[in-house]
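Cross-posting from the chemistry board since nobody answered there.

I work mostly on the small-molecule side, so proteins are not my area. We synthesized copper (II) ion and want a rough idea of how it might sit in this target. Sequence and SMILES are below. Is it possible to get a predicted 3D structure of the two together?
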Amino acid sequence: MINRRNFIVGAGACLAYPHIAQANQEHRIAMYNVDPQDPSRRMVFTPRILKLAPGDTVTFIPENRGHNSQSTKGMIPEGAEPWKGAFGKPVSVTPTVPGLYGYDCMPHRSMGMVGLLIVEGPGMLDNLSSAKSVRQIGRAKSAWEEIWAEAEQSGLLTA
Ligand SMILES: [Cu+2]
């Protein structure tokens, strides 16, 4: 016999994220001196663009020493929790506010070691223009141009 109450609760959970098979998923982003997939790229987060659901966890894994992951000032949604990982240590973040989260590796930001988390949900693009307007230095500038273009072209910025 179907428990009507449980059935309704279950249906509600599915409606919240109909295209997400499982809530609270775990993701991993590796930090490398040299990208094993493309040795011409140095000081990288892999993957450097990741779309996730609110409540999913992302763990940044230092495959080489001397890297960290930290949210970039001015590049996370209003009300979101900033993070700052220690050098050479894994750090896990569980963003709950939908929106765009720019992050970097402190010593290698100007070498283009930056990345983007896209947390889907209502208001996902609210901080797009403010995140894009943050001043970038060195190779972070071209890295962000590539990231925004790639996110756009691959449809990841479609709410
Ligand atoms: Cu680094």
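Reply from a structural biologist on the board:
Welcome over. Reading the output above for you: Residues 1-15 have pLDDT under 50 and may be disordered. The CA atoms of residues 34 and 42 lie 4 Å apart. Happy to explain the token format if needed.
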